[in-house]
Amino acid sequence: MKAAFFSISLRDLVMIIALLLAIKLQFPSFADDPGVGWHLQTGEYISLNSRIPTPDPFLYSEHPRDWVSDQWLSDLVLFRVYEWGGWPLLYAALTAIYLLTFFALLQGALKHSAVSPLASTAAVLLSFKLAQVHFILRPVVFSFFLFAALLLHIYSPRQNGRRGAAKLLVTALIFLAWSNLHPSFFLGLGILALNLLFTKSRALAAIELVICTAVTFINPFGHRLHESIIQLGSSDYFMNLNLEWRALSLEGSESVLAAIMLVIALVSALFVRRSSYWRFELTTLLIFAGLCLSSVRFLPYFAIVAAIPFARAIDILMRALLKRQRLAIRFGAALNEYESKVPLINLPLLLSILYLVSCALIAGSIWPYKGGYGPSPTLYPYGALSQLNTLRDGDETMAVVSHPNWGGFITFTSEESDGVNFIKPFIDDRNSLLGEEFYRQYFDMLAPSGDLARKIKAAGASHVLLPAASQAGKYLKDNGPFPLIYSDNISYLFVVR
Predict the structure, then answer these.
(1) Burial of 485 by CB count in 10 Å (0-12 exposed, 13-18 middle, 19+ buried)?
(2) Which pTM value belongs to this model?
(3) Domain boundaries, the chain
(4) Model confidence over 28-59: pLDDT tens digits?
């Protein structure tokens, strides 16, 4: 084993600091996304029943709903990790994947683009920070990893013969996994299409695009997966309903960082043109910057594609500023030479991952975070759901009218048999499952009015569980059509009679 494997570089020091800050800043709300519960419940269902949950078994409905579970493989992986080590191991595993995305895969793409190690480290750090806007406990973290892996593939040297065939096979396997892990494989296909436009090896790139597109149809749902994703993405209603799909705020710190990265990267792509990839870089940069303006969830992908032209611009700027500083030039050259010899996968990176996993399994907590794990008790109705579980009579299903953001939590936290819960909410945040019409009718039903109690009874609900701060919750509490059987600062629980 080479001695460089054991070396500690500037990149490693930056990585460790970035990791500790990410733990400190992201962990307090890491599992607060509304989809966490139904993702884990889906994984448990698949683990217990060895099949995809279709029709949907989790929500209350008089008629079965066909569900295209477009993240089923991610859900299974997440549940397995949760089963082995609970919430702390889930936090550790996704943090390790996030760390590898930037400090191994993206760093590797930068290395192939012939950018100096110092500039590369600066770009990776900024990208790592910028992408944290969507670093949460959801399958999207797998997508960041595969997106960076695809970029590494594009920037790595072309191979002929058996090596070229092996490289093509690896790319196809990336998309085979990606199409079963997360719907954002469409972004990867877009990257391959752009590469086809600007690469010199167009015949090989065309074959690669066709094969990778074809393998995305190897999933439990075939073409229906693609139709479901396109239908959701074209819905203006859901794009405006969900915070993660709304446009990036121009006043936040993320917008400032993204603007700085965009301007510097554009200068590199437009005027420097030292890279044979400059047309590809400029196009992807502009496309993903535009996507960010339409939806904040594209910001991590922008951070990844902008890293290379940004690093190249920083590299040139550093050379220009230090042009007459001989001592600084010598020091920088020596440091770059040392950094270039350190492998991407080295001892500090592996020790960082080992630290995360061992803390989770042994201590049940990951320093420097000292808070709780799992969905926050200040956002989710633990007390009310515990009360509901005590009221369950045999195998009787309890149909619960609740807030959409609580549906997944109720599904995963309530008592169950063979992966199916007895307490069934009417709704959760699976937009593609329920559709626009159901959401509109559901929100209309919960509008505070004299018909509220009648509408809830007509829907077949046995209980109502609403946020204490909601207008519908306050209306039911104040007007008393249903007995209030539990209340706290988070929720009101009513029984429908």
Answers:
(1) middle
(2) 0.93
(3) 3-30+68-232+304-363, 382-495
(4) 999 999 999 999 999 999 999 999 998 999 99
